[in-house]
């Protein structure tokens, strides 16, 4: 019998592992971006003081199975979903939804009436399935490489 997935709050002790999950998702997962775009987006696993500072200002929700982090999502106060990454072998298994449910619960707890995100081409369908609407397509540049993404938002009722 497979060990169930645990959804938990993250801490500074998880930061390095989260950088590795992000790298794995972007560089090894299915993608609508080119190899050049993916290399510009995440040239190496994130770590270090800048990464620690950015994550330290956010609520981190982690999906873990048998002690291994398989995905994470973060909420930058008060209502911005900043990071949402799932290891390739765990995609399409409900991990994204479970993480988002915890993020949405946290946003509701703090009285938020909406969530918003800048979704990649891969994340846009997952966010749409959870009730987000595209507010604007966007063109951005990372390390001089152009990317398409979507500004999206979801109203929180009740």
Percent of residues in helices comes to 25-40%
General form = globular
Beta strands, count: 7
Please trace the helix and strand order, writing H or E for each element: EHHHEEEHEHEE
User: What is the C-level CATH assignment of the domain at 5-112?
Assistant: Alpha Beta
Using the coordinates shown, work out and report the CATH topology of the domain at 5-112: Aminopeptidase
Structural category is: alpha+beta
Profile the largest sheet.
Answer: 7 strands, mixed
Residue-averaged pLDDT: 96
Low-confidence stretches: none
CATH H-level homologous superfamily name of the domain at 5-112: Gcn5-related N-acetyltransferase (GNAT)
Kindly, what is the distance between the CA atoms of the first and last residues, rounded to a whole number of angstroms?
Answer: 37 Å
Estimated radius of gyration: 15 Å
CATH architecture of the domain at 5-112: 3-Layer(aba) Sandwich
Q: Within the largest sheet, what's the order of strands?
A: 1-2-3-4-5-7-6
Q: What count of helical segments does DSSP give?
A: 5
Give the strand content: 35-45%
Task: Note down, in words, how this protein is organized.
- The chain is of the alpha+beta class and 158 residues long.
- Helices cover 32% and strands 35% of the residues.
- It has a domain at 5-112: Aminopeptidase (3-Layer(aba) Sandwich).
- Strands 1-2-3-4-5-7-6 form a 7-stranded mixed sheet.
- The radius of gyration is 15 Å and the shape is globular.
């Amino acid at each position: 019998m497979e060990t169930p997935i645990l959804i938990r709050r993250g801490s500074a002790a998880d930061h390095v592992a989260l950088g590795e999950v992000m790298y794995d998702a972007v560089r090894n997962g299915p993608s609508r971006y080119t190899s050049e775009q993916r290399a510009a987006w995440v040239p190496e696993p994130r770590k270090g003081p800048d990464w620690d500072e950015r994550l330290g200002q956010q609520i981190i929700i982690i999906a873990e199975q048998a002690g291994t982090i398989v995905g994470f999502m973060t909420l930058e106060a008060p209502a911005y979903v900043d990071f949402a990454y799932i290891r390739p072998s765990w995609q399409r298994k409900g991990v994204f939804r479970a993480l988002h449910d915890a993020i949405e619960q946290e946003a509701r707890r703090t009285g938020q009436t909406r969530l918003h995100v800048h979704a990649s081409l891969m994340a846009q369908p997952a966010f749409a399935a959870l009730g987000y609407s595209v507010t604007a397509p966007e063109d951005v540049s990372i390390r001089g490489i152009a990317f398409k993404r979507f500004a999206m938002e979801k109203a929180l009722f009740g």
